[in-house]
Amino acid sequence: MKISDPDQILSDQDLPQRIVKSHPLNPALDQNIDKIVICGAGYHFTNGSSIEFDDASRMCRLHLPKDIELLDNYEFIFFHEFSHVADRTNPDFKYSDRKKTSLSDAEQLILMELWNVYIDARLNHHQLFRLGENDKGIICEINGKQQIAPFSIEGKLLCHISFVRSRGFKKADSIVRDIWDNPNKFRSYDDLIKLVKDNT
């Protein structure tokens, strides 16, 4: 597995490979990735992180803010981003770009939010989820009012609930909490899409 970090964002160049090889959501993840390219995503961690994976070339592009190592939870962010690839390369998950693009823009956003909750629930079960500075000061709708979410797991869930509800997702509270509270319940991409379709 090759690591390319042209902007020298990471001081520990072996970190991505260690996380891929020890990822709990797909023990064979390292066998599905040939190259990881680290790309800059702005200068501040509020820009967020994301990952792209190309099945044909087996290459990941991991987009990271240049100050990500200032976050005390940055290794946990790596576990989260690579979880998307872990699921995509798991044949039982049945990820499909075609199915994703068949959804409306709002449905795609809801789908990604539910997938993120599902990922974090499983990582939390493996003690590989931690809140960080990037989770502080987030404004969302709580009890009908825009306010800063508590810096806690409950606050994180309230932000997820607010996000999907604002895009027309019904039963947002109960569904988000069910995903979080049941990390061992397997959900395929089709299962997540059905949740979106049945509740928007």
Compact summary:
Helices cover 40% and strands 14% of the residues. The protein has 200 residues and is of the alpha/beta class.
Describe what this molecule looks like in 3D.
The protein has 200 residues and is of the alpha/beta class. It has two domains: 2-88, Zincin-like (2-Layer Sandwich), CATH 3.30.2010; 97-198, no CATH class. 40% of the residues lie in helices and 14% in strands. It is built from seven helices and six strands. It has helices spanning 15-21, 74-88, 97-101, 105-125, 153-165, 172-181, 189-198, and strands at 2-4, 35-40, 50-54, 59-64, 139-142, 145-148. A four-stranded mixed sheet has the order 1-2-4-3, covered by helices on one side. Strands 5-6 form a two-stranded antiparallel ribbon. The longest helix is centred in the middle third of the chain and has 21 residues, at 105-125. The chain is globular, with a radius of gyration of 17 Å. The model has no long low-confidence stretch (mean pLDDT 94).
